From TrEMBL:
<dbReference type="InterPro" id="IPR029058">
    <property type="entry name" value="AB_hydrolase_fold"/>
</dbReference>
<dbReference type="InterPro" id="IPR050471">
    <property type="entry name" value="AB_hydrolase"/>
</dbReference>
<feature type="domain" description="Peptidase S33 tripeptidyl aminopeptidase-like C-terminal">
    <location>
        <begin position="228"/>
        <end position="285"/>
    </location>
</feature>
<feature type="domain" description="AB hydrolase-1">
    <location>
        <begin position="85"/>
        <end position="205"/>
    </location>
</feature>
<keyword id="KW-0378">Hydrolase</keyword>
<dbReference type="InterPro" id="IPR013595">
    <property type="entry name" value="Pept_S33_TAP-like_C"/>
</dbReference>
<dbReference type="Pfam" id="PF08386">
    <property type="entry name" value="Abhydrolase_4"/>
</dbReference>
<protein>
    <submittedName>
        <fullName>Alpha/beta fold hydrolase</fullName>
    </submittedName>
</protein>
<dbReference type="Pfam" id="PF00561">
    <property type="entry name" value="Abhydrolase_1"/>
</dbReference>
<dbReference type="InterPro" id="IPR000073">
    <property type="entry name" value="AB_hydrolase_1"/>
</dbReference>
<dbReference type="GO" id="GO:0016787">
    <property type="term" value="F:hydrolase activity"/>
</dbReference>
Amino acid sequence: MPKRKKPITSNSIPKTILFFFSVLQKISTVLTVKFASLLFKSPIKYKIPKREYLMDQKSKQQLVYIPKIKKQIMTYEYGEGSKKILLVHGWSGRGTQLVKIADKLLELGYSTISFDAPAHGKSTGSSTLMPEFIESILELEKIYGPFEYAIGHSLGSMSILNAIKEGLPIKKAVIIGSGDSVNDILLDFVSNLKLKSNIASKIRAHFEKKYQINMESYSAYIAAKSCNIPILVIHDKNDEDVPYTASENIHKNLKNSTLLLTEKLGHRKILGNEKVIEAISHFLEY
């Protein structure tokens, strides 16, 4: 795996949290790992912005139970097209976050199925991890499928690749601003909290013991090796949340992919960019 460029540091973490962890790591490594692990799996539920109101109002919404994780998630059926496309948001996102892409897909005659992942949006719970995103995708395929295609953003992209690895039967996929190595994500997380780097491995060990999983096995570059369908990989070079080198590495490990790198769109504006949406439309249609 090639050496990864360090992402631009985020300044969005409240100073109170940074201060809390600066004190805590001086007192106890065990407590630092415990509270950092809780924070890592606790998304923020943001208020729905005005641009997503219409999709929220016009979607048929339903709480769906996901047996394997024993949680309910809110689903959104949008449009009347017979061919369905699955949309998967990222961490701290919502089922309506890919609204601009969804509106274009409706123009092309598709309908979309999206959802609030566990502990996100209108779904129940306050904590989650990527395996629950993946289980949600696989269960929704049984309920709403078959899906023609899947489009994901950030953690949603990683989840789609892992779902394909586990048998999600789609013809094409689009992944936008995807993370790659779970180990790198943990290192970035502790770095942003200004914690010592060894805390990342301790958090990983904590989760692996608690959930009996190998966290790095969920990395996108690993899942990519099992994906045979055409995949469009999109990432912005100025993404401050996830380095574009993550998508470059995913692209290298995919068998049939196209890499589109944009500039000055960041991690979220890319979802509403007209040129990006046109590129997605062209990829799916031809």
